[in-house]
Amino acid sequence: MDPLTIVTSVRSIFSLPDAVIRVNDLIDSGDATNTELERAILSDPALTAKLLKFANSSYFGFSGKVETVLKAISIIGHKELRNLVIATSVTSTFKGIPSHLIDMNTFWSHSVTCGVTARLLASSVNSRERFFITGLLHGVGRLILFSQYPKESAKVLSCMSQGEDAVTHTELKIFGFTHAQLGAELLRQWRLPANIWKTVEFQLDPLKDEFYKYDASTLCAAVNIANFIQPCTNQQESSEKKIPTQAFEAWNLLSLSPGIIESIITVTKLQVNEVLSIVR
What are phi and psi of 237, to 5 degrees? Predict the structure, then answer.
């Protein structure tokens, strides 16, 4: 059992909508025109509506009303467009997840909270949307495990009360890999940029790779901050809210003081509901 084999076998189940794949292919080509991208998006009415909602939300703060997809593309840019297109489609991609293992509303609330937090932690304006999509997708590996290995996943979830370190240890013991590694493989096969799927891969050990340590630490910090706001599952957690060692390491690397973290939590809470209403 390994992430590549599992993801290859479930790609037909967890696949992006045709319009999203087309947008991804056009952007990958490097010479796509805004008109071509607009045509691909307009082929999916639901995607069109959600993208325009995003463009007009206070979350992104664009000046003036964005009434057409073409204008949205020109304002957002191609890289950020890819991120937003995936963000608006991903919740409908994962269907049939056993409800006794996880409540999907809770899962996506946590994922959006993590995405908003990661965006606030981004080191530059140009990387904000990338970190949003990375945070949003950081836990999709768990959904694959819930879908394909419900009995084993129940054992993993039973460790939630012991903290995230215990969950990671149990995943490695049962599967031989973590949900982070599995999720990264799915995002790689979706042909997302390496700076997204590699960040997801290293989120549980952010200092492991020198090149990605700042990105992975940003995601690690965002996940653990989001855990205080909105848990990932409905499983009982420790009342002491055990913080993994790697979270402290990430906060230190990013120079996040308790005061900064409190401010981020406050702003995140204000932004999450609007983004969640669009994504869902």
Answer: -110, 165
The two three-digit tokens of residue 219, written as one number: 């995601």
d(CA 189, CA 108): 22
Category of 96 on φ-ψ map: left (φ > 0), alpha (ψ -120 to 50) or beta: left
Residues 6+ apart with CB under 8 A from 198: 184, 209, 212, 215, 216
- Pick from 51, 116, 84, 53: nearest CA to 272: 116
**3-279: in CATH 1.10.540.10:** no
Q: What are phi and psi of 265, to 5 degrees?
A: -60, -40
Instruction: Give me the helix-helix angle, 104-121 and 78-93, nearest 10°.
Output: 160
Q: pLDDT tens for residues 173-207?
A: 999 999 999 999 999 999 888 999 999 999 999 99
Tens digit of each residue's pLDDT (9 = 90 or more) over 231-271 = 776 555 554 557 788 999 999 999 999 999 999 999 999 88
Cβ partners under 8 Å of residue 201, min gap 6: 180, 181, 183, 184, 216
CA distance 167 to 227: 14
Task: Round to whole Å and give the CA distance between 237 and 234.
Answer: 9
Q: How far apart are CA 233 and CA 159, in angstroms?
A: 12
Spans of all domains in the chain: 3-279
Report residue 3 as tokens.
């992430």
**pLDDT tens, residue by residue, 80-94:** 888 788 888 888 888
